[in-house]
TrEMBL record:
<dbReference type="InterPro" id="IPR051693">
    <property type="entry name" value="UPF0046_metallophosphoest"/>
</dbReference>
<feature type="region of interest" description="Disordered">
    <location>
        <begin position="247"/>
        <end position="267"/>
    </location>
</feature>
<feature type="compositionally biased region" description="Polar residues">
    <location>
        <begin position="247"/>
        <end position="258"/>
    </location>
</feature>
<dbReference type="GO" id="GO:0016787">
    <property type="term" value="F:hydrolase activity"/>
</dbReference>
<protein>
    <recommendedName>
        <fullName>Calcineurin-like phosphoesterase domain-containing protein</fullName>
    </recommendedName>
</protein>
<dbReference type="Pfam" id="PF00149">
    <property type="entry name" value="Metallophos"/>
</dbReference>
<dbReference type="InterPro" id="IPR029052">
    <property type="entry name" value="Metallo-depent_PP-like"/>
</dbReference>
<dbReference type="InterPro" id="IPR004843">
    <property type="entry name" value="Calcineurin-like_PHP"/>
</dbReference>
<feature type="domain" description="Calcineurin-like phosphoesterase">
    <location>
        <begin position="7"/>
        <end position="189"/>
    </location>
</feature>
């Protein structure tokens, strides 16, 4: 399949800062645009994003962007974020984005973006632990890029006070989806890039990883950009993820085909999803704040797709057929914590900042 190199610039947790951004095709901002979410703060950041020279700008909010999590402010804040066609504002939803080039070629990426993070204190878009699995099961299996404010557990989530502060259920969802790229922020100390190789062969340990490679950033005083090359250039090793969703490399022992199982929404929290024929990439699939006293939905037990998160040979009835069958080409995921703000409040010794992170990767051209 023909492909084209795309440059993705990742940033998060700017907290009212408007840093100069390196050039690229796609900009991803993984939340915490502001400190308190006021309209004036949001307007300042939006103007900065609007003027940034990218074809597409992917945007989610974070726990500090509190006014974007309230019905009262939707008329103002949400309308502002949706007023520029180059900005794709995602509210726990999936979207297909298209890049168009001067040589008349086009390329597409399937993006899922969500502002949610584990609830802590009086902040926005928080979810309790018992809601996490249902929330992240909403990520479509064919997603190329997952943008979340929270990091997955044990990946770029190191906090000096609390250790690993990411979400385990998100990590498990990434094992099943295995996107090319997972961009997050939230934990300022977790800034950096690593490549996760997923273990798809273990028949005894669920959601297992093979190994993790951390990418070295330039020295603190260096003026070099933080660039990670995941393309097919000869001197670099390309990311082991061809985005495959349907090419069968071995027969399945179930009639359930990949990418077709209908995920039940979180009862009382998320709207009904469209029919399986249209889901998971409709024009808009939005979620509401997942904090509710509604009972937790019980996972159906009549499905015969195997055991969630279980690797191994497809001949086994235990293997996660939906996640593995025809999708073994998805072996690695690049996890990026793009937190621009390096310090935490009250910023003793003054605020410090990280570099935006630049990724070069291959994406398929539209035939």
């Amino acid at each position: 399949m023909a492909s084209r190199r795309v440059r993705i610039v990742c940033i998060s947790d700017t907290h009212n800062q408007t840093p100069k951004l390196p050039p690229g095709d796609i900009l991803i901002h993984a939340g915490d645009l502001t400190n308190q979410g006021s309209f004036s703060e949001l307007h300042k950041t939006f103007t900065w994003l609007q003027q940034a020279d990218f074809q597409i700008k992917i945007l989610i909010c974070g726990n500090h962007d509190i006014t974007c999590d309230a019905t009262f402010y939707e008329q103002y804040c949400i309308d502002l974020l949706q007023s520029d066609s180059s900005i794709v504002y995602l509210r726990h939803e999936a979207k297909v984005i298209t890049l168009r080039y001067e040589d008349d070629t086009t390329a597409q990426l399937k993006i899922f973006g969500s502002p949610y993070s584990p609830a802590k204190g009086f902040w926005a878009f928080g979810y309790p632990p018992e809601r996490a699995s249902q929330l992240w099961e909403q990520i479509p299996l064919e997603t190329d890029v997952v943008v979340t404010h929270t990091p997955p557990k044990f990946h770029r989530d190191e906090s000096g006070k609390h250790g690993a502060s990411g979400c385990e259920q998100l990590r498990q969802a990434l094992w099943r989806v295995r996107p090319r790229l997972s961009v997050c922020g939230h934990i300022h100390e977790g800034y950096g890039v690593e490549i996760v190789t997923w273990d798809l062969s273990s028949a005894n340990v669920k959601f297992k990883e093979s190994h993790v490679k951390r990418c070295e950033e330039p020295p603190p005083l260096s003026k070099k950009q933080f660039v990670v090359d995941l393309s097919n250039r000869r001197r670099f090793r390309a990311l082991l993820n061809d985005g495959s969703v349907g090419s069968m490399t071995e027969p399945c022992n179930t009639t359930l085909q990949p990418e077709t199982r209908h995920r039940s929404p979180i009862q009382g929290l998320l709207p009904d999803v469209p029919s399986p024929a249209k889901y998971p990439f409709p024009d808009a699939h939005k979620a509401q704040c997942p904090i509710s006293n509604a009972p937790v939905a019980v996972k159906a037990t009549t499905e015969s797709h195997g055991t969630y998160g279980q690797g191994g040979p497809l001949s086994s009835c235990r293997v996660d057929q939906e996640a593995i069958c025809g999708r073994r080409g998805r072996q690695e995921t690049c996890v990026v914590n793009a937190a621009y703000t390096a310090t935490n409040w009250p910023h003793r010794g003054g605020k410090k900042f990280n570099r935006p992170i630049v990724l070069d990767m291959e994406i398929p051209l539209i035939q």
